[in-house]
Amino acid sequence: MELHEIAKKTIDGTRGPKGFPDKHIKAKPFSHAALVIQLTLGMLAALSIYGFATFDYKNINLLDSIQSTAVTIKTMFLEPHLKHFTFGEALMQVIITLGLAFLTTLFGAVIALFLALLAARNLSTGTASIIIKAGVTFIRAVPTVLWVLIFAVAAGLGSVAAVIGMTFHSVSYLVKAYSESFEELDKGVIEALKASGATWWQIVFQAVIPSSVTYLISWTFTRFEINFAVAVAMGAAAGAGGIGFDMFMASGFYYDVREVGVVTYFILFFAVLLEILATRIKKKLRAKV
User: Fold this and answer.
1) Mean pLDDT of 142-155
2) pLDDT digits over 158-189, tens only?
3) Do 171 and 139 contact (CB within 8 A), yes or no?
4) 14 phi, psi to nearest 5 deg
5) In the chain, how long is the greatest CA-to-CA distance?
6) pLDDT classification of 224: cutoffs 50, 70, 90
7) pLDDT for the residue numbered 240
8) Which of 214, 240, 216, 215 is nearest to 227 (CA)?
9) Do 207 and 185 touch, CB atoms closer than 8 A?
10) Are 170 and 227 in contact, with CB atoms under 8 Å apart?
11) Residue 33 has pLDDT above 70, yes or no
12) Potential cystine with 240: which of 14, 162, 187, 198 (Cβ 3.0-4.6 Å)?
């Protein structure tokens, strides 16, 4: 009997007389968790309706507001123009933002590499691993913009506070990513090197890093993409300069929505460019693994 006939008969044997699978889908029993979820959703819906009904709209007509918003969005994205800075100046500001993202990623990657070696359970002691992982977990729990504002108390608002705050958060992110990559290394390799008399540094540079380098590059570039988006926000929130500061001036100082549209297109173009570059790098790295 041919293989495809056996497979067909096997499939037909599991079907009912009309060709449908002869298995009944079991209904999920009503549980306490489902009751709590339904009550929570119902309460949120009721609170939302009450909020919209009792909100103080200050005599604003909702339909007029929606129409004005649509006109603003249309003007922003379909009629963009530059008035307070030139195309070359905007391009230079984007390069400054990319530089800020690159600098913080570079600092963060170097510091995180050494901390991740101490945080990896297979390369360090349990106490050191727990202390470092607990510390970076706390740092990651606080948003980057808040770290920048905390450091701005000492350094003042500007690029210095932005670099320190973004580097601080990048270290915490990369320590987690790097240490988990190191922990995936086969324990047998490390034990074999230890048995042959290799030192800790020899194990790191001859086994751990060479086997994890593709993951390290992939995670570092992912953080670079994140830092580019954060650098745009820091330009507006912390006065770090770059294209984010120009967007803040165009929207909050000049109120020129057409110029905001141009800045948005600039940011979108470079974000897509970084995404394409990241995808190609990751594909090449996967092909080598």
Assistant:
1) 86
2) 888 888 999 989 999 999 999 999 988 888 88
3) yes
4) -90, 0
5) 81
6) very high
7) 77
8) 240
9) yes
10) yes
11) yes
12) 162
Dist CA 77 CA 268 (whole Å): 12
Q: Is 124 left (phi over 0), alpha (psi -120 to 50) or beta?
A: beta
Q: Mean pLDDT over all residues of the chain? A: 84
Query: What is the amino acid identity at position 37?
Result: I
Q: Is the dihedral of CA 94, 98, 101, 104 positive or negative?
A: negative
C-alpha–C-alpha distance, residues 22 and 87, integer Å: 66
CA atoms within 13 A on the CB side of 162: 28
Confidence of residue 6 (pLDDT cuts 50, 70, 90): very low
Instruction: Say which residue the tokens 């008399």 belong to.
Output: 197
Spatial CA neighbour of 218 closest among 284, 122, 121, 136: 284
Question: Who's near 221: CB < 8 A, 6+ residues apart?
Answer: 277, 278, 281, 282
Chain position carrying tokens 């990751």: 282
Question: pLDDT band at residue 44, thresholds of 50, 70 and 90?
Answer: very high
Can you tell me whether residue 55 is helix, strand or coil? coil
